[in-house]
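Following the same procedure, the fold was encoded as tokens, giving this record:
***
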Amino acid sequence: MVKFSLTRTSVGQEISPEVAFFSSRGPSSISPTVLKPDIAAPGVNILASWSPASPIISSDTAHNLPPLNFKIETGTSMACPHITAIVTLLKAIHPTWSPAAIKSALITTASLEDKYGLSAVAEGAPHKQADPFDYGGGQVNPNKAINPDLIYDIKTEDYTRFLCAMGYNHTAISWMAGAFTPCRKKGNFLANFNLPSISIPELKKSITVSRTVTNVGPVASLYAARVEAPPGTA
């Protein structure tokens, strides 16, 4: 049974945002030049609607429980609907934006701290300060994603070149693209794939990478770039 009542304020110890132990971690073993995960969203103890047609099996009684309309669940499958809903709203507000533009808006406006300024931590053995391999761009911030000012857009042909650089042949790429698509390899394309992140595996010497941003903010906007080098790099 669930009882709903008026809200009340409970003052206690502030807790940092936490990446659950079951949340997927990076880097990607298949394409390490693509930072994974992309984004973090709420996925623990989520109260959500539940189809009454879906059977609920109790591990304690091994019997089916009565149909439910709502259920509290935990998992990455609960974080996914949050992102899906936000993407749907962004597409309604910006109908001309590509999937890459929407993804860029989510990632570049995500939060690394909560409203109290506390940094995210990651569950594990032991707990540690969370990093991009735990949360990607950070925790999604729907309101900020509406106006990201700059986006990293990607065209269809860029995806085909990415697959080509990954080692897929033109037959496999054409099958996925639905049309004949010749494979033209381009040097260092993986590192220069226009993502809103930069991931360089096995960095042993200096390397130059490029990104192209598109202004979706006010026309007369002026932006300044600032680089914060990760520890161990210059």
